[in-house]
Design brief:
9 helices; mainly alpha; homotetramer
Chain lengths: 192, 192, 192, 192
Amino acid sequence: MFKGRVEAFSDGVIAIIITIMVLELKVPHAVDLSALRPLIPVFLSYVLSFLYVGIYWNNHHHLLQMAQQVSGNVLWANLHLLFWLSLIPFVTGWMGENHFAAIPVAFYGGVLLGAAIAYYILSRTLVARHGKDSALAIALGGDFKGRISVVIYAVAIPLALFVNAWLACLLYLLVALMWLIPDRRIERNLQP
Amino acid sequence: MFKGRVEAFSDGVIAIIITIMVLELKVPHAVDLSALRPLIPVFLSYVLSFLYVGIYWNNHHHLLQMAQQVSGNVLWANLHLLFWLSLIPFVTGWMGENHFAAIPVAFYGGVLLGAAIAYYILSRTLVARHGKDSALAIALGGDFKGRISVVIYAVAIPLALFVNAWLACLLYLLVALMWLIPDRRIERNLQP
Amino acid sequence: MFKGRVEAFSDGVIAIIITIMVLELKVPHAVDLSALRPLIPVFLSYVLSFLYVGIYWNNHHHLLQMAQQVSGNVLWANLHLLFWLSLIPFVTGWMGENHFAAIPVAFYGGVLLGAAIAYYILSRTLVARHGKDSALAIALGGDFKGRISVVIYAVAIPLALFVNAWLACLLYLLVALMWLIPDRRIERNLQP
Amino acid sequence: MFKGRVEAFSDGVIAIIITIMVLELKVPHAVDLSALRPLIPVFLSYVLSFLYVGIYWNNHHHLLQMAQQVSGNVLWANLHLLFWLSLIPFVTGWMGENHFAAIPVAFYGGVLLGAAIAYYILSRTLVARHGKDSALAIALGGDFKGRISVVIYAVAIPLALFVNAWLACLLYLLVALMWLIPDRRIERNLQP
């Protein structure tokens, strides 16, 4: 039950984040198809961020599924993750409205990087709480996907600034697709 | 409990969707009745979408009520449904602000069609998980209402574009009324 | 658990309604006290509506507390109540921005009347489900406060339109204060 | 379960408060770094308020964790706390947009003071319900941190108005950091 409220609060915050992003899709005043054209990049950035927030919810769900107990440190590590996720609507809107220009794309990557690090801290805090031999620690293992994501974001940010913003977006999409496959490590472990 | 968090997250997202639509009803600056006149189509589209989102929540509630377990696939099928539902406030505002013009009405139907297909995929994913002889599979049966809804949307979209947008709206209303009757198939099945 | 999700969804919608009303308190661009003056009526209407939504949540909480089971009819009666409550932010903003002018005050009363009737229907639907001899039916009794509220709203609306809008507001406040006292009928009944 | 719904509703409201604050970070139309400069004070005030709302959620979590039962009075004391918290996005936006000017900073402190008093009332109402010898009463003890916070806010408000707004902000930050350390009194008490 202790754990339950952390999940409920996180569900609430993530549900609001994933939904208010759609408010950036401002209702156009004209009725023809051309009125939708300026919304296309905003829509594409919405889809990408919906994927990301959905992935974070899925992984958060799997992670806490395995946790037996939470501590004060876990609460703060969790709020730290929610902080970075709460910035996603802002960078999504900025990136979408400016047709994936270099600086907004780099900031988008920066927020993704912050969220990835926060997620890593949260999972390590939970492992510290449960012990290195706990099911959770074993299921997480070396967390290859988490590490490679951080590396890709760290590559994508300078790529956006100095080479090509679209290449960075492609990398963001790549990471998303990599995570779309649900965390089989944990799911396998949950099987009896 | 595993299932519980999928329900909680879906409840959160659907609750936000159904509530932020009302933000499209912009507070008028004048105080006479005529100030409300331009809001009438926005209000009507709000009522229609409130009905639809309410119906989806009701059906989602009934569907997951019967599910015993969820998998990674179910999580993603569920997020896919929430994605389409999250677009409803946008098309509702666009349709309402433009007095049910042809193109916005067709897009509204397109989002309803997407949501209907996503709901169908979700229910099939759950059936695949529970087996063809499960109570859930038997209760859903051939899913007549789901199929006929998809057909009606597919008819309504070209109708809106090439014949009359109001006819399409009438069809949307018809589908809503058809669903207002809660899913007796499942409810009957839940009776001991 | 069946009941649990109706509560969770209602909690979500009511939580959003009570919170988005504060968005009508637009951040002023100036920093002196006079910049807050135009916000005073908006703030007062926010406080009144916060009270009302809080009362509805409290009563909804007490009502469902006593319910043993919900049906398709209950789901729809509940959505009907949420529909009226979802209109409160709109009428609150309209009334507040126009310094409690006659027509917005009358509409505010109209929404309160709609919500009161919807709540009455919900409680009767629950009584019908549980039987006239159920604890819920006995605890609700003749529902004196519910009836008198409807009468007061019905008086306040023409009063706002044809006599004085402030008198109507006073009546709304009176009803709110009457309800602030939590529903002792039910609470007494819950004691062992 | 009675207590559960109070927690769920509070989680919902606090989740929305913590998330809608980010909407004050308006998406800039330009793409260079200088476009972000006017957002820096808004961002800083967002971080401070995120900390505060996070602290309130954490403490609320710990407080209700120890409660065995809730009463009508507790429901209202809780709504009173949520009311003050709901004003945080408004004062955050006002303070941030005006670069921490004296009057907005004083109002920010006023809302923090109101929330602190409301939290104190809530904890006393819970103590009254559970008895002076209850685990909750013993864990709360003299509530030193709660009292000192109220004193610091009461000092910070005139400081902002008559001396220096930044000093007041520093005091707000100090209180936040003091609370960041989770309420060990209660956590220790929860250990078996």
